[in-house]
Amino acid sequence: MKKTLILSLFLSLFLSGCDLGAVEQTELQTIYNDLKVNDKIAEITDEVCFLSEDCKLPGEYAMRSSCPYTVKCVNQTCMIICPEFPQVLPEIEAPVTLTYPSEMNRIANGEWETYRNEKYGVEFGYPSEFQLEEELHYTYEDGKDWYRIWVKNPDLPENPVMLLEINPDGYGPVFPDKHYDLTQSDNAKVEFLEESIYAPEEYNQDGIMFIVAAMYSDNENMYSWHFTYQENGEEYETLFKDILATYKFF
Predict the structure, then answer these.
(1) What pTM was estimated for this model as a whole?
(2) Which end of the chain is less enclosed by CB atoms within 10 A, N or C?
(3) Whole-number Å distance between alpha carbons of 197 and 232
(4) Contact, 5 vs 44, CB < 8 A?
(5) Who's near 113: CB < 8 A, 6+ residues apart?
(6) 164 near 152, Cβ under 8 Å?
(7) Who's near 216: CB < 8 A, 6+ residues apart?
């Protein structure tokens, strides 16, 4: 059953009493994967998605003249949006490359292993101090697999874990701290398009950094990443980006 909500994103974000002035404008621009502050959610559908391209605008909305309706993928759910009050916000600067802290510097600059899977058309590198685990989660009727690969090091106090899911069938909603918009480059590697902050820092006080990313490859597989680590310790997001930079698709 579809759930219909007519409410502004402003109310959905700050219903709990958050002060609008306390949130940076660049954060507001990227909250919930490109929704603008005054966009209105006309309908939350029951369709699961990973990218906005997965969502289709129903004809009943396309025909309406009251609003130029569009559809977007928000937290892996298709939402019909009315951009009632369009506004121009400043462009987001590219993320700054961080310098490795002491422990991660030793790990990142040490020996790396190479993982390659011919069946799923993917190859990537990872630090040799990390463990790699694999699991065939599900096989669809058309013969495609939902396959999972973990790269992790539970011996580190921050417990960094990277989960790669190949052709997942949808789950959620999930509430990450950050989202990476990725695509396949001309040389069949990962290309970063945009980095989005899903919610102000005061709403993410669980002590765990949770980053998600997803992309389709020319090899007709879909790849989804979940990366987590304990905060207030070593900063492992840069290591995650470096692992993503080693990916090759074939």
Answers:
(1) 0.58
(2) N
(3) 18
(4) yes
(5) 125, 126, 127, 128, 132
(6) no
(7) 51, 184, 222, 223
Structure tokens at 250: 């074939």
Mean pLDDT value of segment 197-204: 60
Distance spanning both ends of the chain, measured CA to CA = 39
Q: Residue 22 has which token pair? A: 């306390």
Q: How many CA atoms lie within 13 A of 91 on its CB side?
A: 4
Amino acid 92: pLDDT: 42
The pLDDT tens digits of the residues spanning 68-124 come to: 888 888 777 888 888 754 444 445 454 444 444 556 677 777 789 999 999 999 999
pLDDT of residue 26 exceeding 90? no
Q: Indicate the domain borders of the chain.
A: 7-82, 102-249
Q: What angle do CA 237, 14, 95 make, to 5 degrees?
A: 25
Chain-centre distance of CA 13, in angstroms? 19
Token duo for residue 215 = 């992309």
